[in-house]
Design a protein that fits this description.
GO molecular function: purine nucleosidase activity
Shape: globular
Helix content: 25-40%
Order of helices and strands: EHEHEHHEHHEHHEHEHHEHEEEEH
Domain Inosine/uridine-preferring nucleoside hydrolase: 3-302
Pfam families: IU_nuc_hydro (PF01156)
Bound molecules: beta-D-ribofuranose, calcium ion
Number of strands: 12
Protein name: Nucleoside hydrolase
Largest sheet: 8 strands, mixed
Structural class: alpha/beta
Strand order of the largest sheet: 3-2-1-4-5-6-12-9
Radius of gyration: 18 Å
Oligomer: single chain
Region (Disordered): 65-84
Length: 310
Amino acid sequence: MRIYVDCDPGIDDAMALAYVTARPDVEVVGVGTVFGNNGIDVTTDNALRLLELYGRPEVPVARGAARPLAQPPRTAEHVHGRNGLGEVDLPAPAGAPVDHSAAEMLVRAARSAPGSLDVLALGPLTNLALALSLEPELPRLLRRVVVMGGAVRAPGNVTPWGEANVVNDPEAAEVVFAAGFDTVLVPLDVTMRTVATEAWLAELKTVAGRRAETAAGFLDFYAGWYSTVFGVRQCAMHDPLAAAVLLDEAVATEVVEVPVRVELRGEFTRGMTLADMRLNRDVGDGRPPVRLVGAADGEVFLARMLDALR
Ligand code: BDR
Ligand code: CA
């Protein structure tokens, strides 16, 4: 399987990179970075550091968008730490980003093997929207796009109704949801229910090795912040759950095909994801459906996540 990862590392992005790089049968053809959990300099530097940590220094990293299409950027140091990785210091990267943008790298990768590449999108969708403007045929050149983003029936996490990856660039998300990709959407509805429990975090601490020990450090910080949400030291695993669904769609145990839109004008609801859940399918307005994940097999996911860190 050949995959391209677009991300804003970010602690859970780091866990997703650990997940996909642990699989010898998965070729990561490139990693694009985007602003989001931190500014673009930090997320790009983190992507390089993480690929070195995970033994994949040869994977090209392309620096992507520094800001959303139509609003100022916002970051999340309170969730991910000032360095985006829970204040865990990783060695400075030996490598550097390639000389073209993340949007350009995605287009090149898609053109080089039409119909065979899967994209894992784990940050604001700015780079994907920019790639679409460079190559309008992108939905036919890619095999699948798995997006962590949105909150359909769940509350938001940045605004009462908005999830970070969508709220941080609503225009880009709207462009991507309208484009006709074969999209699998993994929203907060499922990621907030498929959490790394206190027991799982305790088990992680018993695993030796650099991957596991570093992850335990990241998640210690992350669970500290998430305890303000959950009341106990557990944490959401948004991005690695999307990775798990990409690598094995059976991890998603409930999926509906529905059109999804992003509210762009609401005074309070800008960035809200709206899924058309009506049962009569003859009422649509031509917007292509996405595959919206409503539930996942948390046990299988957490077991595989731990294996990936061993
Ligand atoms: C998403 O937002 C980011 O903070 C996380 O990395 C994840 O991709 C969750 O809303
Ligand atoms: Ca992310």
